[in-house]
Every structure is written in C-alpha cells, then in structure tokens.
C-alpha cells in the first residue's frame, strides 16, 4: 500500500521563526515586545514602518534562518510520522533566496532522517499535492485538497474553519487516531 | 476562468546545464568529450570513477549553476506561455544546497517576469500538481498526472512513451494548438 503523504511547514511549525524575528526586532530597536503584543497580527503589522524595513533586511540576510530554535516536540513527532507516512517538508522560502541553503542545513542538523528528496522550497503552496498539510497560514491551507491541520500561532488566532493544533503533542494524537 | 498550470524544469530544459558539466569536465581533465559521447547516457555514466567524483564536487560548489547558458528560444517561449498560463518553474535542486540561491539569481537575471511565488525547488517532483509538465527526465514525468512533454536530451533518447520535443520552438507549436 502506498504511504500517505504529509506536507509539513517549517516557519512557526517546525521552527520557532517568529520567536527569532521578535528577538531580533527587540535587539535592533532596544524594545521589549513580547508575543502578547502580536495577538492576531503578523509581526510585520505591529512594527513601525522604519523598523519594519530594518527587520525585513535582517530576514533577507544569510544565516537568519540557520539558528532558529526547533519547536517543542517537533523532532520526536515528525520522526514518528516519518516512519508511517511519507513526510515532505514544504516551506514558502523562495522570497528569501539566502534562506534556502540555511533551511537545508537546519533540516540536516535537526531532522537528519528527512532526505533532500522530501524537501520542497517554494512560493505559492497551491502547487503541492499531498494527503495532509500542517501549516500556520490560512493562505496555504485554503487551496489544499487534502486534510488540513492548522498549527496555532499568534497571528492566526482569529481564523476559523480549520482543525487547530496548539502543539506537536496534539498533532501526534490526531495521527494516532487516523 | 482559472489559468492552466505548466510546470517547467530548469536543467537541460531552460538551462544548458549538461553543456556546462561537459565543459567543466573537459577543463578539469584535459579531455575533449563532445555531446556525441554521451548518447543515451547520463554524464555520470561515462566519466570514470575518479573523474566522476571531481565533477560531482564541482556541481556542489556555489556558483556552478549561476552562469549556465539559457537554452535557445527558452526566454521568448516561456514569456509567451507565462501570458496565457500559470507558469511554475520546478527544479529538482535540493540535492545541491549551494545551487538554490544560484538558481533564484539565474531566474531573476534571465526570466525576471517569473515571480519567486512561481518557483519550486524540490527533490522528488511527484509532489507537484499541475496541468502540464515539461521535463527531460522520465522519473519526473512518469508520476505526473497531467499532460507530459519530454524535452529531448542526450540521456533520454531511448525513452519511449512520451511526446518528445526537440526545441522550445516545438513546445511553442504544441501550446499554440492546445
């Protein structure tokens, strides 16, 4: 029997990228924003225009995505899923050309069991076909034809209509019951 | 009406990558191989083992994919298709992490009308869903659910069962009749 495929997002699903953006922003601007300031907003909505450009520049630099922390329990659960499903890592990354190699190196470091064959770095995820998609962005989930799992994030709290998962432990339970 | 999607391969379809590999091989080894030595073979089949490793190393280096020549008529025909279809560039590139930014920069230079949104850098292309796929590798075409167009290459001359196109001009004619 063919294994079913799961497409898993990187930023704010496997990798705590939002946390790194916030930390970098606070460092550059000597501010002390916390995640609570950003409820239901993207980071770029709350930063003022001048500082928005500064943080955009940082995100475009080589290395920005290389040392992002791994989300809690992501390694254990993705490894378990990888044994039963065909796991593909699908990251909307082509907007940031310098992130591409960083993302491959990051995966190689933290998820060495994922082959380069199973990595997709793209822009518009509507070209990806799989059975399940785990993502924090509605724009990625809404065009997907398989089952959608919304990974809860500060910026998607107001979005309805998707099964929501607050942690990798909750995702593990979902697949245990599939 | 939704535009139909075309997934277009880069190496040996948009970009004359085989030609660069051959040139690099000859340069390193002081040989004078021509394309005719490689009929129905991949480049890696004919190179001897020691030299195979040398050329593999070259392909992994930053910059290798950056200055590859554009295939004849590719720019004009892809531009014309882009006006009628949703064109996605789909390259099996994640095996070569240093190629990823080079490929984005190459596209930006030669195909600036293609947005980063429409670029997919992946390993296994069976995850890509579109209406048409233009590719030189059977492994990519055989799992594709839409219409397949095989771009003729030295290494695929023995492959049957696909509509074969020897040039971008022939691809233009195909789409003129769709």
TrEMBL record, chains A, B:
<dbReference type="Pfam" id="PF06941">
    <property type="entry name" value="NT5C"/>
</dbReference>
<dbReference type="GO" id="GO:0009223">
    <property type="term" value="P:pyrimidine deoxyribonucleotide catabolic process"/>
</dbReference>
<protein>
    <submittedName>
        <fullName>5'-3'-deoxyribonucleotidase</fullName>
    </submittedName>
</protein>
<comment type="similarity">
    <text>Belongs to the 5'(3')-deoxyribonucleotidase family.</text>
</comment>
<dbReference type="InterPro" id="IPR010708">
    <property type="entry name" value="5'(3')-deoxyribonucleotidase"/>
</dbReference>
<feature type="active site" description="Proton donor">
    <location>
        <position position="11"/>
    </location>
</feature>
<dbReference type="GO" id="GO:0008253">
    <property type="term" value="F:5'-nucleotidase activity"/>
</dbReference>
<dbReference type="InterPro" id="IPR023214">
    <property type="entry name" value="HAD_sf"/>
</dbReference>
<feature type="active site" description="Nucleophile">
    <location>
        <position position="9"/>
    </location>
</feature>
<dbReference type="InterPro" id="IPR036412">
    <property type="entry name" value="HAD-like_sf"/>
</dbReference>
């Amino acid at each position: 029997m063919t294994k079913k495929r799961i497409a898993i997002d990187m930023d704010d699903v496997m990798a705590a990228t939002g946390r790194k953006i916030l930390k970098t922003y606070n460092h550059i601007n000597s501010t002390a924003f916390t995640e609570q300031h950003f409820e239901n907003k993207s980071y770029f909505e709350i930063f003022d225009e001048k500082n928005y450009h500064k943080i955009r520049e940082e995100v475009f630099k080589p290395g920005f995505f290389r040392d992002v922390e791994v989300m809690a329990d992501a390694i254990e659960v993705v490894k378990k899923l990888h044994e039963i499903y065909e796991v593909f890592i699908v990251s909307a990354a082509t907007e940031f050309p310098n992130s591409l190699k960083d993302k491959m190196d990051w995966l190689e470091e933290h998820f060495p069991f994922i082959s380069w064959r199973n990595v997709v770095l793209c822009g518009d995820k509507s070209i990806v076909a799989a059975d399940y998609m785990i993502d924090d962005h509605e724009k990625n989930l809404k065009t997907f034809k398989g089952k959608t799992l919304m990974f809860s994030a500060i910026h998607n709290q107001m979005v309805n209509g998707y099964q929501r998962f607050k942690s990798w432990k909750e995702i593990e339970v979902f697949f245990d019951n599939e």
